[in-house]
Write a structure and sequence with these properties.
The protein contains nine helices and nine strands. The protein has 313 residues and is of the alpha+beta class. A seven-stranded antiparallel sheet has the order 1-2-3-4-5-6-9. The chain has a two-stranded antiparallel sheet with strand order 7-8. Strand 5 and strand 6 form a beta hairpin. The chain is globular and about 60 Å long. It starts with 13 loop residues before the first helix and ends in a 7-residue tail after the last helix.
């Protein structure tokens, strides 16, 4: 890890603890995904950001199960770009940000796409003093053909991770997830949601150590939430028509990431590595003019649910 100049020697800092955690988590997740795929392996790229920091990107393509997926970590630092200073309402600030971000696009339309991100951010004055710090993250599921029990399973694992720390976390962060992953120009959700939390700071109830423990609990739950769904659905047969529907829905995924997603915006505005930022985009997508599914079909049922988020647990 490339440490910023304001690093204090002899002190274990939260950013060191969290960066070590996401390095290990990346190894665990990519190893399991390779095992489940059984064909393809992740390609690794290590990169350096000229302004400070860098990352380790891992991408899998053309697998037996996973058509494309990325599990990336980064730790970047330096002067906060003017656009982001304006966004945060600060002047002359430096920053450090690290996180793990993943998106997995399976080949089969019977297996949902999944996204997850866990991140930590610090902001400094020009003397190197921390003036703000927070955690953020979450995980969400985007099915193409909805098996209700899959959504129930995913949300149940999310709820269990949250309940270990605060019984209000799941309902609050589930609601925030539904609101965040909302394709406003389509008036529909990107998927069936999960968890989303951001700007999780020290409070009377939660120290930064408490927040770290919570974020790690959620990160550690990811494989439990997703892999059983993949294993259950990966052998199901599908038609070309169902594959076409998957690619049409992937178009909505692309629209959200390029129009609304704050992580994409932050990466672009801080001169992040473009290949890593856009690894979330699926390889095969369709945009059909004024497309509507057949009345009474499974495709129509999915759309109706996406237009009104449901309680799954």
């Amino acid at each position: 890890m490339l440490l910023p100049p304001w690093e204090r020697s002899g002190v274990t800092l939260m950013k060191e603890v969290f960066y070590t955690y996401i390095q290990n988590l990346q190894n665990i997740i990519t190893s399991k995904l390779e095992e489940v795929d059984g064909k393809s392996k992740f390609k690794e790229d290590q990169w350096i950001r000229p302004e400070g920091g860098g990352g380790r990107s891992r991408v899998i393509e053309n697998g037996a199960v996973f058509e494309k997926g990325g599990v990336n970590i980064s730790a970047v630092h330096g002067e906060l770009p003017q656009s982001m200073q304006n966004y945060f309402g600060v002047k002359d600030a430096d920053f450090f940000a690290c996180g793990l971000s993943l998106v997995i696009h399976p080949k089969s339309p019977m297996i949902p796409t999944v996204h997850a991100n866990w991140r930590y951010f610090e902001m400094y004055d020009k003397k190197g003093n921390i003036v703000d710090q927070w955690f953020g993250g979450g995980q969400d599921l985007t099915p193409y053909y909805l098996f209700d029990e899959d959504a129930v399973h995913f949300h149940s694992v999310c709820k269990k991770a949250c309940d270990a720390h605060n019984p209000m976390f799941y309902p609050n962060y589930k609601k925030k997830c539904d609101a965040y992953f909302w394709n406003a120009h389509r008036n529909e959700a990107r998927g069936v949601g999960g968890l989303f939390f951001d700007y999780s700071r020290t409070s009377e109830e939660m120290s930064m150590q408490n927040w770290y423990s919570f974020v790690a609990e959620v990160g550690n739950s990811f494989l439990k939430a997703y892999i059983p769904i993949v294993i259950k659905r990966k052998e199901l047969k599908y038609t070309q028509k169902q594959r076409d529907w998957q690619e049409i829905r992937r178009g909505r995924y692309v629209e959200f990431n390029l129009v609304h997603d704050k992580g994409t915006l932050f990466g672009l505005k801080t001169n992040g590595r473009i290949e890593s930022i856009l690894m979330s985009l699926p390889p095969h997508v369709q945009w059909r003019y004024d497309h509507h599914p057949e009345e009474g079909s499974e495709e129509e049922r999915l759309l109706k649910i996406l237009q009104k988020p449901q309680e799954w647990v």
